[in-house]
C-alpha cells in the first residue's frame, strides 16, 4: 500500500506523462532505442516544435534525459527500467481489460 507522499507523487508524475498519447508514443519509441529529436519527429510524424514541448515535459518529469553527442542532442529513457515498466504496464492493462476504452478520452485527455 502506498502511504508515503513521495510514492504517490512519483506515480502521479508518471501518470501525467502517460496521459498524453504523443508522450506515450515518445516513451515507447525511446524504449526501442535512444534517438535524436529530428529523427524522432520524423518517425512520429509530428512537428519538431510539438515534439520539443513534449520532450521538455518528459524531462521535467524525470523520465527522459538529453545526452549531448557532439553538436547534437540525443534523447533516451532516464532509466532502462522505465522501458520494462512500460511493457509490464501495457501487458497488465491489456490482459485485464483489452476491450475497454475511456468514454471521455477526447474531452478529458485520459487514456
From TrEMBL:
InterPro entries associated with the record: ArsR-like_HTH, HTH_ArsR_DNA-bd_dom, HTH_Metal-responsive_Reg, WH-like_DNA-bd_sf, WH_DNA-bd_sf
Presence of the UniProt keyword Transcription regulation in the record: yes
Keyword DNA-binding attributed: yes
Highest taxon of the lineage: Bacteria
Gene3D superfamilies, per database record: Winged helix-like DNA-binding domain superfamily/Winged helix DNA-binding domain
This protein's UniProt keywords: Cadmium, DNA-binding, Metal-binding, Transcription, Transcription regulation
CDD domains: HTH_ARSR
GO biological process: response to cadmium ion; response to lead ion
Domain HTH arsR-type: 4-97
GO molecular function terms noted in the UniProt entry: cadmium ion sensor activity; DNA binding; DNA-binding transcription factor activity; lead ion binding
Pfam name, any one: HTH_5
Subunit structure: Homodimer.
NCBIfam families: HTH_metalloreg
Function: Metal-responsive transcriptional repressor for the cmt operon. Binding of cadmium or lead causes the repressor to dissociate from the DNA.
Name listed for the protein in its UniProt record: HTH-type transcriptional regulator CmtR
Amino acid at each position: 500500500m502506498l502511504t508515503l507522499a513521495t510514492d504517490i507523487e512519483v506515480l502521479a508524475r508518471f501518470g501525467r506523462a502517460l496521459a498524453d498519447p504523443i508522450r506515450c508514443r515518445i516513451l515507447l519509441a525511446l524504449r526501442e532505442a535512444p534517438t535524436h529529436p529530428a529523427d524522432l519527429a520524423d518517425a512520429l510524424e509530428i512537428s519538431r516544435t510539438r515534439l520539443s514541448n513534449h520532450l521538455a515535459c518528459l524531462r521535467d518529469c524525470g523520465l527522459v534525459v538529453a545526452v549531448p553527442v557532439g553538436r547534437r542532442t540525443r534523447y533516451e529513457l532516464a532509466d532502462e527500467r522505465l522501458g520494462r515498466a512500460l511493457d509490464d504496464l501495457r501487458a497488465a492493462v491489456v490482459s485485464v481489460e483489452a476491450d475497454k476504452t475511456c468514454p471521455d478520452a477526447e474531452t478529458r485527455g485520459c487514456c
